[in-house]
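Checklist before submission:
- one chain only
- standard amino acids only
- sequence pasted in full

Submission:
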Amino acid sequence: MSEPPESSRIICCIGDIHGYITKLQNLWSNLENTINPSQFKTATIIFLGDYCDRGPQTRQVIDYLISLPTRYPNQKHVFLAGNHDFAFAAFLRLLPPPLDGSDFCDGWKEFEESEEREGWFNGDGYEKMHLQGRRWSGKIKAKFNVAKGTEYQGSIYDAGPTFQSYGVSHGSADLVNAVPDEHKKFLADLVWVHEEDDVFINTDDGVKCCKLIAVHAGLEKGVDVKEQMKILKARDTRIPKVQPLSGRKNVWDIPEELSASPTIIVSGHHAKLHVEGLRLIIDEGGGYPDKPVAAILLPSMKIIRDTDVLAK
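Returned file contents:
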């Protein structure tokens, strides 16, 4: 196929926002001014996760995201859970209980050698908290993140600014009461994976009609895809570290078993903008204050950034 059908819908995948409300507002404005108005009105908007932490305005970001379905009722909005959002929800005790009836504390042991270094949360309610909630709200001993070249902001997740955006100090159990109910519902409802059929995409070999899988970090290589999808769709919280939400090199590529039929895998998470074939990684900002938040439009593959200055 040389061109997508004129009726093909626009799918817009938006990378990690990380608490930067102005970047989100500017990106949304640029999307609205780039996409044909009738197509924007009915577009599918997939947010790839990580709405919180690092930037100073998590509360305002979530307010903005919550407002979109009312402001744009004909759009389809998909809100994926990122590893940061998962951990935020874990601290607020919003995660569904493990499907096998186990306790969250059963998942601590595998990572307990990191507890002292990461300063896991030990305050009110920690006994029944998922591992990632304890790590998210902990107080890391190191001050400098060598890998990123930045100062830690409270915890290994840089969650300090999220606490502050709700008016409480980092690591305070008061956050549970400070977060509004509508924000808790938003976090509790986040999906771990999203699928779309019949998605058109422009490639070097012409236009392809593909299946699309959106997941925050990617799908793990060497692990049965059907099993991964089952866990993600069920939001199986017995797992202390969900690799498709938090992995790195092990989720970078498209699993070989998906090569039989064209499948787009779109993710954020990796602090990179990487477009190679049907593997789309859209996280140019990575939560850094001086880097843009980006989105990709399908079928055109056009990249839009919050920093773009559009011609009038």
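Reviewer check: The longest strand covers residues 194-203.
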